[in-house]
Amino acid sequence: MPSAQPVICAFEDTETSRHxxxxxxxxxxxxxxxxxxxxxxxPLDIPTRPSREMLxxxxxxxxxxxxxxxxxxxxxxxxxxAAPGVELTTELLEGQPVPELQRLASERxxxxxxxGTAAREGLDRFLIGSVASDLAxxxxxxxxxxxxxxxxxxxxxxxxxxxxxxxxxxxxxHAAALAALLGRELVLxxxxxRGRDEGVRPDAELAKELHAAAVRGLGEGPDRPPLDLKVSxxxxxxxxxxxxxxxxxxxxxxxxxxxxRGRNALSTxxxxxVSAGLVRTAGRPxxxxxxxAAELEREP
Length: 300
What we know:
- By secondary structure, this protein is of the alpha/beta class.
- It has helices at residues 15-31, 51-57, 61-79, 97-107, 123-127, 131-138, 166-182, 204-218, 240-250, 268-271, 273-281, and strands at 7-10, 35-41, 88-94, 112-117, 143-147, 158-161, 186-192, 231-237, 255-259, 286-289.
- The model is unreliable at 119-129 and 264-271 (pLDDT under 50).
């Protein structure tokens, strides 16, 4: 069996993060991939105490940092769940969350980077100052954003928004590779603007791209699993976010994939209003694929 790129789950001590971890375990198991549970310890983010209290207790800044680092080690040790069928390891990183997670994902050639998001608390919370949005813009692999309460392990297809553009084709390729690994149908959904166009048409070049992506995901060695990828293209008329989220619910989609524009995610205009809207409203994991994301590919 070809070796698999790992799934990396960014973990914090929150219920949202624990929900994302459940999604990461499911994905790693379905992909036959190892899972890395990563927590970033930032020494600059340690809460301070009043000077008088520290003097009274004979506590130094080094003591506070050491206690916080020990707590981070305990968090990872206690958070790592039993995950039958999944090779699970932990990584305690130190520094700023976004560059450290990007570095780890790049060094490990991660297939996916999974994180929770508090997007239900408001769109601005997802977009401004958010680790998830910054990773969605620049990660070396797709970011799977898992909103709090998102439906997990749904029985339906992998759904990808597709309009013929380069960023949507990028998302469709990643969705094809993952659908092949998970044994799911791939549904490409093009939402047309009312009265503007007739939508995209499937062609031989698109089929070739998706087939090649699925083969790379499964591995090209003689012992790779058989490729059995069913792909369908649907065209709907309406608002892209509403239609993609609605089709995902109707078909019990396991995941939605969409491309991002790959710039600093300070507003919907930069990360993409469809991407941000799906994270907020779709109620299931959303794979965000920036231009920096490498293709999913099993090594021989």
